[in-house]
Structure to design on (163 residues):
């Protein structure tokens, strides 16, 4: 242990990532025949190997606990947005007003920017079209669909994950 942080080897990170990916594969595939199990294991190992930081040590730990605090909030926003989009689609006049919204953010951690962009895309009615270190370009089905983003609420929630 150095300075309060645990050093994790590259191999250990690959194994952990592969185990998580393989578990996800098994849950989502819903099948346990030999072909799919081996295919899932190979895919998980390849993706983990390609994904792992090749510098040899983890420089910044991933805030897993804070992520689990964030996910229920995101799930609630996904549900609320799903209801809103369903109302738009079922409305007789179909009151959609598609718009592109350039959203300037203050996030500096690239993982936070990725989480923000993915959170926008997972929320029905919005999709991240482009991401840069200073800005997201978001397509929204209407201005209400992007309220969590434009109000700054989603960015604050994401920033709290990486504090």
């Amino acid at each position: 242990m150095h300075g309060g942080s645990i050093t994790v080897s590259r191999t250990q990170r690959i194994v952990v990532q592969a185990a998580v990916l393989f578990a996800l594969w098994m849950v989502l595939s819903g099948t346990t025949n030999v072909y799919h199990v081996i295919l899932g294991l190979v895919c998980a190992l390849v993706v983990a190997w390609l994904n792992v930081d090749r510098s040899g040590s983890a420089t910044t730990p991933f805030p897993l606990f804070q992520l689990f605090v964030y996910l229920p909030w995101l799930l609630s926003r996904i549900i609320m947005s799903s209801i809103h989009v369903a109302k738009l689609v079922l409305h007789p006049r179909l009151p959609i007003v598609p718009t592109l919204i350039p959203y300037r953010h203050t996030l500096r951690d690239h993982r936070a920017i990725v989480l923000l962009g993915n959170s926008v895309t997972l929320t029905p009615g919005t999709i991240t079209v482009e991401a840069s270190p200073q800005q997201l370009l978001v397509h929204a089905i209407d201005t209400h669909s992007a309220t969590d983003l434009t109000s700054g609420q989603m960015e604050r929630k994401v920033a709290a994950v990486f504090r």
